Amino acid sequence: MTLAYLTTPLLGIIDTAVVGQFGDAALLGGLAAGSLVFDVVFTTFNFLRSGTTGLVAQAFGRGDALEEQAVLWRAVLIAVVAGVILAALSPLFAVAGQWFMGAEPRVSAAMSVYIRIRLLAAPFSLINYAILGYVLGRGEGGLGLMLQAVLNGINIALCFLLGLELGWGVAGVAWATVTGEFLAVLLGLAIVLSRFRKLERPSRRRILDLPAYRRMLSLNRDIMIRSFSLLAAFALFTRQGAQFGTVTLAANAVLMNFFLIAGYFLDGFATAAEQLAGRAIGAHAPAPFRQAVRLTLIWGFALAGIATLILLTAGAGLVALVTTSADVRDVADTYLPWAAFTALSGVLAFQMDGVFIGATWSRDMRNMMLVSFLVFSAALITLAPAFGNNGLWASLHVFLLVRGLSLLTVLRLRVRTAF
């Protein structure tokens, strides 16, 4: 799953690199702002991936194969309805995004184009969330890798073709995403349907069970609040960068891709924590639960150290590959160390998220994220005016550290009562 997740930030950096070849900081800023709005919208439905993983893993731990299938189909039904609504509302999201960012007109125009096109993929993206959640809940990392590789591989190839070769720029990057998500849905559904033909199927009554939907939506409420708080922090980070000027906004966008690469690099072990913690909770097995927490922590910190060293040594070369703008390169190189060390600051938060998602302790995740967001906001108000972009990046590190340490503190209390 580490390999699978690495394809997602790789796609983000390819998107940035394709648009960066036009040498226009406004286009890079528009792509960054548009991606942020898109992430805010889709974070509402992140439970279709993470919540499905936790529920399927617990059903797997109990040996309840019918409930595993039922969880998937409930998530798919929610994905179809929500996706169609999101696609229909894309013009409103574009206008709201422009208002929130308050960037210069050319940045706003590029952002609007990206949002209006990319949100057309909403039904396909959400169904892919559900399918990936089912696969990961069963611990099938190889299949998850294949699905993510197909999705992002198609997307990356089309980014080069539409965005660069045909010169469509930001619009080409957005259409590449729509096409990749659609083709990935066809493949994912073909795989799960062929598998389910050989198994006993859950009844329609079980799939449409209202208490089960209420549990899933309750899980969604907490994960949604947690995810919105996370994205609100990233939104404030991006907005504050925009206030420092278009070049700083573009440079931060490039560096945030490095942070995302490090984060997704570590998410493989967070996913392992989801699967193993969920199974242990489902089977009421405390020893495997503690072992899963210990091992994913050790490996997570080891990989975080490697990721930081790679970014410190090779980061300047990567910046040069991503953008041809000399001004953006200079600013990005200045703040590169801040981005490199986000892997070590964030590893505990990523790993704890995995444990709490697998155990479906969503309320604790929500509460600790709200605390972390308040601390981040205070740091931002204090440090950014005093130290400029250095203060902005320092605030992000404070946010990541508080997230991880607060969840670790709660985990010790939770384990005493969970089993």
Automatic annotation (TrEMBL):
InterPro entries linked to this entry: DinF-like (IPR044644), MATE_fam (IPR002528)
Domain of life of the native organism: Bacteria
Major subcellular location class: membrane
Membrane topology: Multi-pass membrane protein
Subcellular locations according to the entry: Membrane
Residues annotated as transmembrane: 26-48, 71-93, 113-137, 149-168, 174-196, 223-241, 247-266, 297-323, 335-356, 368-387, 393-413
Ligase listed as a keyword: no
Key words, A-Z: Membrane, Transmembrane, Transmembrane helix
Keyword Transmembrane included in the entry's annotation: yes
One Pfam family in the UniProt entry: MatE
Family: Belongs to the multi antimicrobial extrusion (MATE) (TC 2.A.66.1) family.
Name listed for the protein in its UniProt record: MATE family efflux transporter
Organism: Mesorhizobium montanum
